[in-house]
């Protein structure tokens, strides 16, 4: 969804990140681990460049 949002022209995203989603007090199932988040940022940055956005 985040990649599609950037491709569609979104100016911002809200992404839940947690070191241990299984033990998070809330939103654990939708949280990304930090390493997955870093990977997502790289992909989003590439998409943003293509659609003329800066990060």
UniProtKB/TrEMBL annotation:
A Pfam family for this UniProt protein? DAHP_synth_1
Q: Which residues form the DAHP synthetase I/KDSA domain?
A: 1-49
Which InterPro entries does this entry report, sorted A to Z? Aldolase_TIM (IPR013785), Class-I_DAHP_synthase (IPR052899), DAHP1/KDSA (IPR006218)
UniProt cross-references to Gene3D superfamilies, sorted A to Z: Aldolase class I (3.20.20.70)
Alphabetically sorted, this entry's keywords are:
Transferase
- Which molecular function GO terms apply here? transferase activity
Instruction: Output this protein's name.
Output: 3-deoxy-7-phosphoheptulonate synthase
Q: Which organism is it from?
A: Candidatus Erysipelatoclostridium merdavium
């Amino acid at each position: 969804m985040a990649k599609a949002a950037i491709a569609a022209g979104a100016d911002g995203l809200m992404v839940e990140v947690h070191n241990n989603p299984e033990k998070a007090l809330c939103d654990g199932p939708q949280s990304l681990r930090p390493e997955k988040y870093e990977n997502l940022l790289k992909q989003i940055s590439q998409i943003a460049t293509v659609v003329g956005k800066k990060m």
